[in-house]
Structures are given as structure tokens and as C-alpha cells.
Amino acid sequence: MTAALLATALPTFAFAQTPDDPAALRDAALKDEIAWDIVEGLTTEVGSRLAGTETEARARQWAVTKLTALGFSNVRIEEFQMPVWVRGEEMGSVVSPYPQNLALTALGNSASTGEQGLEGELIYFPTLEALKTASANSLHGKIVFLDHAMNRTQDGSSYEAFGPARFSGPSVAAQKGAAAIVIRSVGTDSHRNPHTGVTDFEKGVKPIPAAALSNPDADNLFRMVKRGQAIRLRLKLTPRPVGRRTSGNVIAEVPGSDPSAGVVVVAGHLDSWDLGTGAVDDGAGIAIVAAAAKRIMVSGTPRRTIRVLWAGAEEVGAYGGDAYAATHGGEKHALVMESDFGADRVWQIEFNFPKAASGLRDRLAAAVAPLGIGKGKGEANGGADINALIKKGASVVDLRQDGTRYFDLHHTPDDTLDKIDPEQLAQNVAAWTAVLAIAANAPDKLGNE
Amino acid sequence: MTAALLATALPTFAFAQTPDDPAALRDAALKDEIAWDIVEGLTTEVGSRLAGTETEARARQWAVTKLTALGFSNVRIEEFQMPVWVRGEEMGSVVSPYPQNLALTALGNSASTGEQGLEGELIYFPTLEALKTASANSLHGKIVFLDHAMNRTQDGSSYEAFGPARFSGPSVAAQKGAAAIVIRSVGTDSHRNPHTGVTDFEKGVKPIPAAALSNPDADNLFRMVKRGQAIRLRLKLTPRPVGRRTSGNVIAEVPGSDPSAGVVVVAGHLDSWDLGTGAVDDGAGIAIVAAAAKRIMVSGTPRRTIRVLWAGAEEVGAYGGDAYAATHGGEKHALVMESDFGADRVWQIEFNFPKAASGLRDRLAAAVAPLGIGKGKGEANGGADINALIKKGASVVDLRQDGTRYFDLHHTPDDTLDKIDPEQLAQNVAAWTAVLAIAANAPDKLGNE
Question: What is the ipTM score, two decimals?
Fold first, then answer.
């Protein structure tokens, strides 16, 4: 169902209620243009914004200007320091028996091959589990090709299933003596755009060069493997760590009327991977949460303060969320929410609420149901930028987005504005607006209030 | 309609006729695996094959081995010489006011910027016509950004409408004093994969650096243009001409029984652009024509010799077709056909036949109609590799493929095997088999017989 259809189907909601009624606010938001304006501006005027680099710093300045222009209060940057890794040159090829170039990209924290590059015999593993069971040192000097069989899932659960190929595959290969590793991209598209993302070398494991192949390249390499001859690969990857640098969170507020109430945090992350322009990850998320907060702002003063958190340095280790918690963890947080799963429509709402607030939970579910959003059976678990607050007792609402095509774009050069459907983006804003309109004013005790 | 549906719908054809009946051959070809085997092998074992380079030479050796193994007669390479241009480094970026990297690729025949690169102010033209009307020398030292509005068309006619932006835009910009030009890719996708292809600098015009932007990059640059500030671009492109080199045509035959009859040529091109693996352009085409010829071969001896022509150096100027005509133009050519528009289903048949052969035309149209192929109202016009033969009087049949998604892939890194639908590929083979089964045996006088 599209937002346009919903807008047509819901005139009774739009006309039967007062302007600052949650349902009316929700339906007006189906024509939202604020979120589009934010993500269009950020991707056009800043583009990619790797954490701790000059591009992320420009994004923070852009953010302060934009949030100030939107009328938010207490707009500020809260800086922090974090370790930075930057991409270098990257080239790969099959040397023999079928010489071909490979489209690949280094994973975050990959070691360098050095300027001279590296050549070795390929050893194939169909799964991370197969790699884990390889005998110690059997990979000595080899280049591992780690495959997997990720598929599309609406809820993104295939990322949990196949993401470990990227998260820990390189560390496992390094422990067993491999010279380098290439993995099939953790992604669901069929384009020559490899998916980057961090990989984590375990403490004490010396990092090796680690790259992701695009899916068509992984397909091609697997066809070569099936032919049975020994395969030699050549890699040149020259990324490097550049030490600790400055990142920062951008914060803006809609001040509440009740000084005894806890804060409502609505979060996304401002940084992006370096290959695309960070439209769906997470330009859309920060646009959605700010647009919804702005809509509450213009409708009147909420009881609770709504705090917009555009976190820095999420992609490379959620440093922004940790920095926020370190600074603000002592404050009362009633409710925390995050949007970091693209720009497609919300299809499910879930909660992590105190038992006493079950009435509020039902009101929220009813408020978003007309947008085609059902109530899930699980528990809300937030996102990377608010995890630390959840551990401290904040209540959570998840507005789960449709992730069916998210991993076509995730961490690739293809994460660009044209992938965002304005109608689905506006449906997100409508859902967030409805939840904020109710939750920011609710009398129920939430979180650690 | 898919080939699978057709196969289910047509049991009467398959069972009501003798095995070497055209309809039976056609229907059996709906389960063809020969074409897939050829294009899978070529893209896996050779990959990209730029004309006049070592990769194209490897492709010729691969082709001789494959066509010999398939049982064709007179399998041979006919070499020729042609000028070769090779890609170098390529990088582009917006310097100000919104610094961002651009995904671009040099057009064939582009000049080099030199190792030091080139910087200049952008000047925007929405169409080639607007560029043509710009005053002489008004572009002096500028970098032209030439935009256009290509859309999908089933018959590929939008390539004729918007292709000239690439074919002649750079020459027009050079004549008016531009330092360089970037064009929006002549393509219909939304991926960060720019479309290369030759550009033709007119005689006497000194080539300038010329590149294609991916569509998302062109979108982004246009959004910057709309903001109204002066934009500076930086380009580094280091392609170079490397002089005349060896290319060649690969030829294989199904010998006919009637020495007085003309030859039937079925053509595609073996070379590809360097960015992808040349799956749809034109691995699929050479696979389709050879698979159909093989199916005729095993069904018995045709009256006319069927000559498979896997032409070299088509992409860079149809040198292979010209070389074939120079060598074989004096022979009698009854019928010539080419497959060079991807791997999607055939939807239309057209003819360029002698008037006396109108009965044969109707038989051919009737033979392919059960495959969902209608008769067009225009005239067959062949393809680049057989144009010279058509000028000498050969008759032509076009089996027009559905080009709706062809320009998503054309001349990009994304031209890879996974884009081919095996069922649609087999429908092509079925159509070609039906036409060859009838036309190679027809008593009618065709071409210059």
C-alpha cells in the first residue's frame, strides 16, 4: 500500500479532528516535504561523510544550519574522539586460469597489502561455519574466498544470519594463517557495487587485507571454482588507520513544558560509509526523525522535551551513541527511538514499555494502524545509537521499516537519493509524528522517569 | 509471456510433426542449453574482451575451441588490423561548492587530461540541441555537462534519440572550445555504473577529454546546477590510442547441399566493452546464433550453407563486419541476420526480402507467431556486422528483442551473466531455429542469388 492511497482513504481522519490532534497530525504528515528536503540537501550539498573525516565535519556544520533554520532549540555539536580508518586504492583480479578484473572494496579495518599488492592461491569456503572448521594453519599464505547465500527479508533478519561472514570471517581467516580474504558482499543486489562495512579482528589477531566482492563477481569466481582448477588471485588494497580524530553528535530540541518529565530521544546517524552519498543509510533516518519532531514543534508545546540526536560515527562502532550516553546517561530518558533502516514504509510497531504503560502501547498501535502498520509479537530493541540508553532503562518504540530492498543498497556506491520513494518516506514521517504526538504528551511513567 | 509458458502451451506442435520439422525444431529449442553454455563459458573463462587487445585474442582462441567442439565445419579466424584505444585511470569530482566524488568513465576516443588532471568551471546544457546553438568559443576552457532525458523503449528507439549526446556531443563541445565534457550516461538504470561507448570527433576536431557520469551522479550534479552557484569540476582521465593492432572474425559453418545456393550468415560480435563481461552485449547474441545453427546441423544438411560470424571489433567501429565484407563480399549472400540487442525475448519479426519471396516471408512469420512474436510494419535493417552485406543486396530477417532493460546494462560494468534470463535466451534460440530451418531450405531466390 502506498502513502498516496492512504491519504486518499483517510479524509475522515483529516477533517474530523482538531489540527493538533495526533490523527490529524499523522494524516497531514502523509504530505510531508520536510524529510525529503533534509535528505535531498544533505546528499546534494555534502554527500558521503565517513566518520572522523572532513566530510563528516562538514555534515555537522550543515546539520546545525539546517536544524537552526527549522526552528529547533539548543542546536549544538557535542564532539568526541574516535579511531579513524580510511580507504586507499583497491584493485583485484584473477591471475589464472581465467584472468579477469574483480569489482571489490576493502572492509573497514582491513589491513593493507602494501603498494606492491599480494598474490596467492584461492581457497573456497561456502559458509563461515566451513571456514571455522578448517584446520589451523591450513590456510597459510592462501587467499580465502568466503561465500554465503544471503536472501531478501522484510525484517532484515538475513543480515543477522549472513552478516557474520563480514563481521568475523576475516578474523577467523587471519587466525588460521590466511594471507588475505575476499567475501561475497553482504547484500542482495546483482550490481557491480560491492558492499563495505566494518569487520572486527579479535584482540590479539593481526589484521589481514579483507575485501568484499560484488555479487556478480562472487558468482563469476564461484563458477571458476566449480571448474576445479587452482585459481590465483591478485589484490591491491592500501587502506590505513590514521589515529584518533574528532567526530561529534548534533543535537536539537523541542523543549517540553514539564521539567519533571523525562526526555524523548529520536535518533539516527549523520555519518555514512564513504562509497555512496548516505541517502538511505542514514540520511533518510535523520530526516524522518527531525521532520516528525518539527511537526510536533509547530503543533504546540509537548509535555516532554523531544531531543533530536543525529549521531556521529555509528557505522564504524556506534561511538556517537556511546558518547551521548556518557554525557547524558544521568538524565531521565522516558522514551528512545531510532530510524536506521532505510526509507521504505513502516510495516510494524513494537514496544519495550513498563507493564503499567500497556494502555499507552495500545493507543500508539491504534494510532499507526491506519498507515498499514501492524503490531509485532516481539520486543522493541532500538538501534545502535540508543542501545546504551536502553540499557539504562529507557522505554523503546520501534517503527520497523520494510527492509526488502535495503540490502541492495546498504554500504554501496548505490546508496543515493534516487533510491528513496518520497511517498514511503512521508509514510515514515506520519508514523513517527503519530507516535511522538501521543507519547511526548502521555501521562504514563516511561523509562526511568 | 515466458518461454516456460509457451513450452507448456505448445505440446501439439512438439508431437504432431516429425523431428526435423521446423515447428518441432522450434519447440525443442525452448529447452535449449547450448546458448547458455556458450555465454556462461565465455563470460567465466574470458570475461571482457576489448577489441584489438589480448583479451579479445583469448576470446578468439576460446571461440575456435568451442565452435570446433560443437561440430561446426571450416572453423577459422580471419584476422584484420584496426586502431586501438585503451582506458587509463579515471577520476572525477566536484571541487566546489559541494565537494563530492563522481562515478564516471571515459568514452572511447576520449583524449587524456594528462597525469596532472584538469579543472574547470561547469557549463550546463539540458540537450545536445542546446549545446549546438551555444555561441562559438563561449565554452572556452569550460567543462561541459551535457544532460538528456532518455527513457526505456521496447524497440530501443530511445538510443537513436539520445545516443547522439554521446556520439557527437564531445565533438560539438570541442569545436566550441570546451576543455572537456561530461555527459549523462546514455542509459536507463539508476546505478553508479557509468555507460561507456565510442564518441566520434569530426575530422579536423582535436579530441578533448570526454566521460559519462552514472545516472545518479548526473542527477546529483543537476541538483547542484539548480542551486545556482558556479560549480568547478576536476577530472583525471588518462586513456590513450595505442596504434593499429590485430583483431579478427571467427567463422564456422554448417555446409549446405546446394553449391549454387547463396550463404546464410548469422552474426553477432565477439568483442565487448572493457567494463563488464560482455554477457548481454554480445555474448548472448553469438550464443543464440551458434545454438540455432547447431540445432539445424544436427537435424540434417540444409540446402544453403549457414555461416556463423562472430565478428571482432564491433563496439569500436564495426571493423569486423567491414573486414568480412572486404573478404567475402563477392560471394553470393542469400540471407543475413544479426543478434546484438541483449538476451531478452524476441517480440517482433521484420523482413527485407525480394517481392517474389513474400510467400516465404509469411511462412516465417507464421512459424514464429506461436512464440509470441508479431510481424512488424517496418523493414528489417540488420546490424552493424552485416550492414555492408545488406548494401550488397543480401536479404534480411530481423528477430527484434525486447530492449526495455537493455540500456540498464549496455556498456556498463553491470553487463554480467546474472542479467540473462535462461528462459528468454532459449526463446531466442527457438525463434532463430525456426527461421533457419525454413529459410536455409527455402526454394525461393534470396539476396543476390
Answer: 0.93
Catalytic residue among B56, B314, B350, B449: B314
Q: Which of residues 35-74 of B touch A (CB under 8 A)?
A: 40, 43-48, 55
Q: Which CATH class is domain B88-238?
A: alpha beta
- Quote the pTM value: 0.94
pLDDT of residue A137: 81
Condensed to tens digits (0 to 9), the pLDDT of residues A345-388 reads 999 999 999 999 999 999 999 999 999 999 999 999 999 999 99
Between strands B180-184 and B143-146, the pairing is parallel
CATH 3.40.630.10, domain A22-85+243-440, yes or no: yes
Start-end of CATH 3.40.630.10 domains in chain B = 22-85+243-440
Residue to substitute from A40, A44, A101, interface B, most B β-carbons within 10 A: A44
Which residues from A are below 8 Å from B40, CB to CB? 223
Cβ–Cβ below 8 Å for B220 and A45: no
pLDDT digits (tens, 9 = 90+) for B116-143: 999 999 999 999 999 999 998 889 999 9
CA of B48: which chain A residue's CA is closest? A100
Find, in chain A, the residue whose alpha carbon is nearest to that of B274. A101
Q: Give the integer Cα–Cα distance in Å for A425 and A290.
A: 12
Q: A100 to chain B: which residues are within 8 Å by CB?
A: 46-48, 277
- Asked if A146 contacts A131 with a C-beta cutoff of 8 angstroms, the reply is yes
Residue of A43, A192, A223 lying closest to B413 (CB–CB): A192
The verdict on whether A314 is a catalytic residue reads yes
Of A40, A98, A413, the CB nearest to B192: A413
Residues of chain A with CATH 3.50.30.30: 88-238
